[in-house]
Amino acid sequence: MRLAKSRDKGDRERLLLELVDLCNDNREDLDNPRIQALLSQVFFDLVFQAEHDIRLRLADKICMSDWAPAAMINILSFDDIEIARPIIAKSPILQDPDLIRILVEATLEHQVEVARRPDISALIVDAIVKGSVAEVMTALVNNPSADVTLDHLYELIQKAEKVESLRTPLAGHVGLNDELAGYLYAWVGDTLRKSLGEKFKLDVQALDRALNQSVREARAGIPGGQTQTIPLGETEEERRERKLIAKLDMAGELRPGHLIKALREKRLSMFVSILATLGRFDPMDIRKTIQSGSPELLAMACAAIGLDKTAFPAILSLLRDINKGRPGGDDEAVRKATATLAQLGPGVAVSAFRKGVAAL
Fold this sequence. Notes:
By secondary structure, the protein is an all-alpha fold.
């Protein structure tokens, strides 16, 4: 009580820190709701009045405590970054909704600390990727314990076209596979290309030829001979379409129904890009699929994105109308393909599609 009544800075610091020690030594008594309510009020009042240095020491001392009042932890997580950093990094009290609130409302420095926090969930990773803040995404890619899925890596690689700081950490990311490495190859410099070629199963000569061709086409289309990096074999119209599709995908608005819309508008390249994006496929594999002699691979790709089997005949008919009758196949082949779509779940369909394309 004497310390509580004192206005001396040292006394207030001593009171706060000794209260923390008292709680750490008596954790078994802290589950009582009455005690929790009392602690919340006491700490809230003390922290609200405490000076910067006291809050800094308190944050270091309380950051790993599982008994700390949630209200106080959330207040400290929005404090000056030196105070907030250990709280954001270590506090078990902070849950996904708290971290998302920091990503939405706090400063860039606070957002970066969220991206660096150990073992952040896929939900937090998704929010960071969709937020598209370069510094935050770079911190995320450098966090080996974050729950980064293959879909997240695909989106981050697409963003690496413009965000240079993503390229090196992505090239060394533990989740990178052969397919994703092939996408990343287009954006990185010679040193990283060599590293990717050695580490993954890439047809480096074919990729380099396609890149050189893309650069020549870009030079020809831009005044002053400036160059720009574009995906392998992509035309300028396809580039514009891809950007639109990427925006829809990032906003969570890209749906299988967009496939039919693209076909009705006779935009074959857009159909390819939408299907590739929805299924996280290589666009070249989709092009091979729609030129094949059977509709079964197309059915597998459609099954992978969860397309309803009743929509497949319409998609196949529209596609053949604008693609010179391809993919081929008689009525029996169409019935077989439709049955395949109905039988395969998305996960199995992805594997079956990739094996089928590899066999072409």
